[in-house]
Amino acid sequence: MMRARSDRMRRQYKTIVLIPTMGFLHEGHLSLIKEGHKHGDDMAVSIFVNPTQFGPEEDLESYPKNLERDLELLQEEGVDAVFTPDAKEIYGNKFQTYVTLEKLPNYLCGLSRPIHFRGVATVVAKLFNTVKPHVAVFGRKDYQQLVVIRQMVRDLDFGIEIIGAPTVREPDCLAMSSRNKYLTSEQRISALSLYKSLQKAKELIKSGVQDAATIIDWATELIQSYPETDIDYIAICDTETLVDIQIIDRPVQMALAVRIGKARLIDNMLLNP
Ligand code: AMP
Questions:
Q1: Whose CA is nearest to atom 22 of ligand 1?
Q2: Active site residue 29
């Protein structure tokens, strides 16, 4: 049905924009839709909690949902089509073809989530083939995901324009995430340590620090000074290859993941020397 609709839109010379999501929508998702409207005239949003990108110990079962509210929000945002497939529709009968990238999943989140980016690349490839968008918008909040999708689109000649949209934050600068719902009010305070460490890094660079290890040490100490924080990784890396950088003599990406209670939170920022 979605495919037939897309064929119809293409025959009408519409420019189709796709925003893939896992639902439980917040302002971050809505900002992607607002960005998307600038790039096309047929807006499709998918809501699918993709089982193949969750590891066995992860939160697939408890991932928050509220489809009714999501649909209301999407209507308010002027979305033309909402695609809400179930797992059977996506991974039907005896599924066995996956998209894997050779290098990019060997860094950052890929280290503690070994099957995650295979699941992401596979489901996004399938969504691209079904919805047939001209343009797709992804959040820079999931920086590694954005880099992985750009690479896949180049490597497999999807011919889809990928837009990276800025991270939307709460008033106190915590990056919006469906997973913030898992935080207790004490943990919510600890969650601010992610952004604070990125800000600290920015200040250190401004004051002339060029050594990545020094900045990572500062960030580690800052985050550990908050209760219940368990650092997964803090990295300063090349913006495209994600390979670690030692000396910050050009724009680099700082990215981190921290477990706080049941939530695993991520954030990142471009650092400009
Ligand atoms: P998710 O539903 O978490 O899979 O996210 C769907 C899309 O929304 C992805 O492209 C995310 O990068 C993007 N996204 C999630 N949170 C934010 C945010 N706070 N700001 C901007 N984009 C976001």
A1: 139
A2: yes
pTM greater than 0.70 (yes/no) = yes
176 CB within 6 A, ligand 1: yes
End-to-end CA distance of the chain: give it in Å, rounded.
Answer: 50
Residue 170 maps to a domain: no
Residues 28 and 148 in one domain: yes
Residue nearest to atom 6 of ligand 1 (CA): 21
> In the chain, how many domains are there?
2
- Say if residue 155 is in the same domain as residue 196: no
Q: pLDDT tier at 93 (50, 70, 90 boundaries)?
A: confident
Cβ neighbours of residue 218 closer than 8 Å, sequence gap 6 or more: 197, 200, 201, 204
Q: pLDDT of 131-173, one tens digit each?
A: 999 999 999 999 999 999 999 999 999 999 999 999 999 999 9
Domain co-membership, 114 together with 20: yes
